[in-house]
Specification:
By secondary structure, the chain is of the alpha+beta class. The chain is 27% helix and 24% strand. Strands 2, 4, 5, 6, 7, 8 and 16 form a seven-stranded antiparallel sheet that branches. Strands 20-19-18-21-24-23-25 form a seven-stranded mixed sheet, with helices on both faces.
């Protein structure tokens, strides 16, 4: 018995040692979720309440390297799709060489990799939907997946992971998040993070905006400070932006608003009734440094998405602006996370991207694209840049300038060019929208600003190879286009070859400041000036130029450049060197920013403005702007 007991004890001890050795060599996964996004080591005090240690960043061990050919093969597998569904993929397969080989643009590989994941998930959902439709025992009810409004009241309890509110379909320009709460606790420090979706195999999501309020300062200052930043698994923390600004830093403007309100951190004086003479100045006024948040006091803070960045207002005052950074656009946001020393009262998100329910649209047939006439050459093809969750903008275009007689008669065709989204719900809504209206061309990559030149190429492909149009036009989904005036201008100019029509810029220089949204390094463009180009809200090229661009990309001979409107100018310049006589027709009635009476194209128009402009054209028969 003793021998048996001793044998068991020896065996157990040996097993324990072997297990311990294995755990040391390959530790058991931690019980907590790695949360490297919450550990900005620029300030140790910031994380005093954190429950878990910072995760070690070893991207080379986390992200598996996948060749472009393997990734692309998933995107271009033939699917069991109907003829109607195939219409939204007319340029998809013709861009295979482009997305496989021309990956010199920033974020190209990431965009294709992310698109592969998104496309496989979307196609799986489409297959399930078809199976359920054929199964009479399965009752399927179409539910709206993208809400316009979300709220969470009585959000007083924040657990170890903080408060979270998900946005099923991301954010878009005009979206806002209002947070009502009271900074409390030992330090009163809290943080707001707008996060995206992590890719498979990546433990943490990207942080599109990290908004950190430090009421008792940090290692740089003892005064209260707001720190804004971004985080990705590939690049870790970016360069932080502080408010108040450091003394040696100049304030920048985002959406015409200051990066940091000059009031923050400066002494403000207010007149009070004297109760304690020792705390008052000689003139009976009381002075203190202004900071928008105060420990123990209620604050109403609103983050609002603009066209260039995210603005923060507190109690009605503009406080900070934060410009979007490359690959971290607002449509990527899937969740807001709030943590730290704050007692939350409520969180409300409004202006969220949502699609219209086609079952409740009375004029649905009038909004669907007119079937393309076979073997008929169109006068004009218009390709519209759009982002997946810009549902309202596309509907506004359908209800307004896509109702011109020339469009409804088939003389002019209009299509939206839309990249895939990283969010499954958005892609499903987009797919249903494409099937309903038949005016969307899906792109085999995820939308990033640095890749919009790929869409320009796709527009040229569609306008010359999918259909045949005399002229090909590019515009944006926030631009109002007077189609009738574009056609009249083409007749007036009376040029059918070598034409670039638009707001021509003949003397522009590359932006060499890394802080600029349009930054171009000498490696990308070594010359001091660009060739003539037309501003992006809208320009027209003749079919010979569009056909040459389509042909050159198919043969891999097209120089890639991330600024799409400038890229068109560069491509035309190269064609010109081969002997083409180019006519640059400048149109002063194309307004790059805003609207002026008599416009041909008015840019930066929201859905309400678009509807208003169309109403004025129908009623007044004139191109009059809305508002004051």
């Amino acid at each position: 018995m003793k021998k048996w007991y001793g044998g068991v004890l020896t065996t157990s001890l040996l097993m324990f040692l072997v297990l311990g050795y294995c755990v040391m060599r390959k530790p058991v996964k931690e019980s907590y979720v790695t949360s490297s996004v919450y550990f900005n080591m620029t300030n140790p005090l910031e994380w005093i309440n954190a429950m878990a240690p910072p995760a070690a960043h070893q991207p080379e061990k986390i992200t598996q390297v996948i060749s472009a050919e393997i990734v692309v093969s998933d995107l271009f597998i033939k699917r069991n799709l109907s003829a109607q569904e195939q219409q939204s993929l007319s340029t998809w397969y013709q861009l295979k060489r482009l997305v496989t080989h021309d990956q010199v643009l920033p974020n190209a590989i990431e965009a294709v990799k992310e698109a592969s994941v998104a496309w496989n998930n979307l196609m799986s959902a489409v297959e399930r939907e078809k199976l359920d439709a054929n199964d009479s025992s399965v009752k399927t009810g179409k539910q709206k997946q993208c809400p316009h409004f979300l709220s969470k009241t009585n959000a007083t309890e924040i657990d170890a992971s903080g408060f979270k509110l998900r946005f099923p379909c991301g954010l878009t320009q005009g979206s806002s998040i209002t947070i009502i709460g009271i900074p409390n606790g030992l330090l009163g420090n809290f943080r707001i993070d707008l996060t995206g979706e992590p890719l498979p195999g990546e433990p943490d999501p990207p942080v599109i905006l990290h908004y950190n309020v430090r009421l008792h300062g940090d290692k740089i200052t003892e005064d209260p400070v707001i720190v804004q930043n971004t985080w990705t698994i590939a690049h870790d923390w970016g360069e932080e932006e502080r408010c108040p600004l450091p003394s040696d830093e100049k304030s920048k403007k985002v959406d015409e608003l200051e990066q940091c309100n000059e009031m923050v951190g400066n002494v403000i004086t207010r007149h009070v009734i004297a109760t304690n003479k020792s705390s008052l100045a000689q003139d009976g006024s009381k002075s203190r440094k202004y900071f928008p948040f105060k420990q123990g006091y209620l604050s109403v803070a609103t983050l609002r998405v603009g066209s260039e960045g995210i603005q923060m207002t507190v109690d009605g005052k503009h406080i900070t602006s934060f410009a979007f950074r490359e690959t971290l656009e607002p449509w990527l946001v899937s969740e807001v996370r709030i943590s730290g020393d704050i007692k939350l009262i409520s969180v409300v998100a409004s202006g969220l991207p949502t699609s219209e329910d086609s079952e409740h649209i009375s004029d649905l047939e009038a909004l669907k694209a007119v079937p393309l006439p076979p073997r008929k050459r169109l006068d004009l093809f218009v390709g519209v840049f759009s982002t997946a969750n810009n549902f309202k903008r596309r509907m506004a275009v359908r209800r307004t300038w896509m109702q011109y007689d020339a469009v409804r008669s088939g003389q002019v065709a209009v299509r939206f060019f839309v990249g895939l989204h990283k969010n499954q719900m958005v892609n499903e809504e987009l797919w249903n929208e494409a099937r309903t209206y038949m005016d969307i061309q899906l792109m085999p990559f995820v939308d990033y600003y640095s890749l919009i030149a790929w869409k320009t190429i796709a527009i040229c492909v569609f306008g010359t190879e999918v259909i045949s149009a005399k002229f090909v036009m590019k515009t944006d989904d926030d631009a109002f286009v007077r189609v009738d005036e574009i056609l009249s201008s083409m007749q007036r100019i009376n040029v059918t070859r070598g034409l670039l029509y638009g707001l021509i810029n003949s003397d522009s220089h590359p932006h060499r400041s890394p802080d600029s949204k349009w930054f171009i390094s000498p490696e990308e463009w070594p010359e001091e000036t660009y060739p003539p180009w037309a501003h992006g809200p809208g320009y027209v090229v003749s079919s010979d130029i569009a056909k040459t661009i389509s042909s050159k990309q198919r043969k891999g001979r097209l120089k890639m450049f991330k600024l799409e409107d400038v890229a068109m100018g560069i491509w035309i310049s190269e064609i010109k060197k081969k002997g083409l006589e180019v006519k640059y027709e400048k149109e002063e009635r194309i307004f790059n920013e805003g609207c002026r009476d008599g416009y041909v194209i008015a840019h930066y128009q929201g859905p309400r403005e678009m509807l208003c402009l169309w109403q004025k054209i129908e009623e007044k028969k004139r191109a009059l702007c809305c508002g004051e």
